[in-house]
Prior knowledge:
Elements: E1 2-5, E2 10-13, E3 21-26, H1 37-55, E4 59-66, H2 82-90, H3 94-111, E5 119-122, H4 127-139, E6 143-146, E7 149-152, H5 168-178, E8 191-195, E9 215-216, H6 218-230, E10 234-240, H7 244-259, E11 264-270, E12 273-275, E13 278-279, H8 290-295, H9 300-308, E14 316-317, H10 320-338, H11 348-363, H12 368-380, H13 386-400, H14 415-433, H15 437-449, E15 452-457, E16 460-465
Parallel strand pairs: 3-4, 3-10, 4-5, 10-11, 12-14
Antiparallel strand pairs: 1-2, 6-7, 7-8, 8-9, 12-13, 15-16
Helix pairs in contact: 2-3, 4-6, 6-7, 9-10, 11-12, 11-13, 12-13, 14-15
Bound molecules: adenosine monophosphate (AMP) and zinc ion.
Zinc ion (ZN) binds near residues 27, 222 and 247.
Amino acid sequence: MRLYNTLSKKVEEFVPNEKGKVKMYTCGPTVYSYAHIGNLRTYIFEDVLQKGLEYLGYDVKRVMNITDVGHLTSDSDSGEDKMEKGAKKEGKTVYEIADFYTKAFLKDMDALNIKRPTIISKASDNIDVYIKMISKMLRDGYAYVSGGNVYFDISKAHDYYKLSGMDNDDMIIGARQGVEEDDRKRNQGDFALWFTISKFENHIMKWDSPWGVGYPGWHIECSGIASKYLGEYLDIHCGGVDNIFPHHTNEIAQSEAYFGHKWCNYWCHGAHLNDKNGKMSKSKGGILTLTKLNEDGYSPLVYRYFCLNSHYRSQLVLSREGLDSSKNALSKLKNKIASIKDEGTLDKKKFDFYDNEFKDGFSNDINTSSMLTTLYDVLKDNDLNGNTKLSLVKSFDKVLSLDLLKNDSDSCIDSKLKKYIEEQIKLRDDAKKNKDFSKADSIRDELLSKGVKLKDTREGTVYELI
Ligand code: AMP
Ligand code: ZN
């Protein structure tokens, strides 16, 4: 398996710390609003990475956090807490907001066939872990208390900029852009580990600590949750590219300060989904959710297919044409698979040949479009019997997760069209019962003109997209 590592800026051979086992940490959502489809692109890439590794035979333990506390409106240490802002806007408590959007997030993950991480843990459930880590960093001189808050001193970190590739000059610019002046800090790049005082008054989520009643900084939650469930050594840590700085940079600084050794070997970052205004982002507004996308005519699995067609490290621009072509392609693909007759016996040699090609695509830094090409090659191969084709499709779908063997075209159809087709089938049934065959035929023809073919079976009328 070869994987691009943001740390070395190279594609490297992947070698886990323990043979056959992978410890993987993926940053989770901030649950003050719905995830947008940009966020979901990152989770799809992480899902393919996990499933691909499992397909290669690794035992993957994956942990994800839910940020329900400590994420401020700017990614620096200042600004209003996003959770509390969301709660105020909706007239709910922060806990109700977090609970509501966590459920919505999990529903989106299910709709996209994303496997649930082994552990999903809320930031607010691990306060004791952060306190333990911060206390040790204070004892060891990596952190300091100033004006009521605890800060990490970045000048003490070993090679603080190694992940981002930034240098001190970039940092001065970064400090001006992202980190607001704070007189309590020794260096303006220092970041808060624990707040007892922040610009935002009346913070509701608060806990007792050795430094006073307060709440944790954003970065410490991921280091804390990762160490609680995965121990001292991580194999892979993922997120979107916007997480490289400051979030992952700070995670490395504090985890390595705490453990006293290198923490994570492979850092994998997914490129952004852009709309016409650039990166899709919650704070900018105008975001597209999975539900809205579905209402617009594109089902969750069409979106998954759309994402799989591009490489995770390339920016992906959202366009109607791109989504339409994914919708057509997935629908055709499923129809083609549905038409394969399960005949013959498994041709092991051919199975292994294509299976290895599929694995090669994945092992080449998660080349999902090459994995899809292998699938199309299987379907095109006239010398391959139906049994072998279907076995390969079933096997590949463990990673692609496009419901390729579900004999419905439903997963490519948006809810509006589906509802319309079902209504038309009902009207046609009524017309047939009333012996109004010309009406029944005109309904069938009208659907056909929209690319929907009806078939009357003993179980009732079914349809397929053509
Ligand atoms: P958030 O909920 O804002 O903390 O983001 C959750 C995940 O989505 C993080 O891993 C981000 O890096 C990632 N992310 C944010 N915006 C985008 C985008 N436009 N495209 C892809 N991933 C994104
Ligand atoms: Zn994180």
